[in-house]
Input
Amino acid sequence: MKHIDDEWEKVVRQEPFAASPFTEEHKQNVLRQVAWLKSGSGQKMSDAPDKSSEQHVRSNQSRRRLRSRKAIMACTTVVALAAVLVLWNGQIVEPVIEKVYPTAALRFTDDAGMNLLTDKMKKNVAVTMRDYLGKQLLISKVQDLPVSGRVSVEAGKEGDAEYALIWLDAATGNLREVQMRREMSANELEHRYLRQVPSLLQGIGGDPALKPLSAKRYVGMKQGELEPKSYTNLSLENEESYGEIIWLQDAAISVSGDVQPDQVSQTALTYAEDSIEAFSGKTAPDLTSIHRTKDDENGKDTFTFNFGDRYIVQTTEGKSGLSYSVMNAKYNRKELNTMEEMEAYHKELLEMKESILREKAAPIIKKIFKVDLQAYKLRRMPETLGIVSFELESTTDVFQIEYNEDARITMIKRDTL
Output
């Protein structure tokens, strides 16, 4: 469900105030100010006569009335605008200056080498940090790169949470490449994101009361691209669950959060329980949580069923097909203390006999998927240690098996493309 703005709210969110948060509290304060000005009290204050000059204005009474009405209207407009600015959560000077004169907000160290930048370069740097990162970082270094025909602008240190590296065309001053990032607390995140949170969580059947915790922003632009891409990741949590929302520019592209059992298909839930029993050979532990991730950017909708503190069933439906996984996320791994022990362990996994793997995996696959593994051909995957696949020739039906050194199966995943 989307919040519907009044027309005047839409105007307020336009330049030069678009970057400043405008909350419901701000809106109500502005409305009260305007209502007071329209009331008798506000107009009486504007209409109060000056007794010392009253005898000199009677002859021009009609003209003064007209001017008075215009003055009241002008006063109402000015004070209403002032209320908007003053009540803007204390963010009055810098956001307005950044919008109207973006380069005025640039900050830099004494040895940054800002003299290498033209006015156009400065404006592009300022606007890029303002519009995509949401913050003007302190510029620490400007460097001329004559071989590549670029000028680089660096803000912060490469290992810092807040960092920017911008390459500009030395001849035109245009952007060539951008890498920027920052971290922020939830209350620093722009209101245009925060106001979407409850409805986005409700859209996946999650808890709309999850509280924003912290956010990270990543901005990138490669050579040849027209504009930077800004990804904003917001983490949410409460005492019982967690979630995450990812935006590309201002549009949410991925939403995740815990959902209640009544929000999923009971057939799917029963199938997950039966899968755990077939996988473990025991009665399935109690369901502890269900987590959903709806990823619109990659066209995937994933449900993760957690049983006890060990077993997981994960289903993914997407543009590329269906995926179903059953796994033991907490099995005991062999302790390796020396390089010789690690090499021997790797050799055990790589040389595991096919007959043993089939013997261990086939009964589980038969119970869960009702499929005979005999028709599938083994393909070893040396780049992923301890994992092999069984593929049906001339189809896109693939089983991926993960195992440990004693051939105990720790994961079975089926992809059908």
In short: Confidence is low (pLDDT under 50) at residues 41-59, 74-94. The chain is about 35% helix and 30% strand. The longest helix spans residues 61-86.
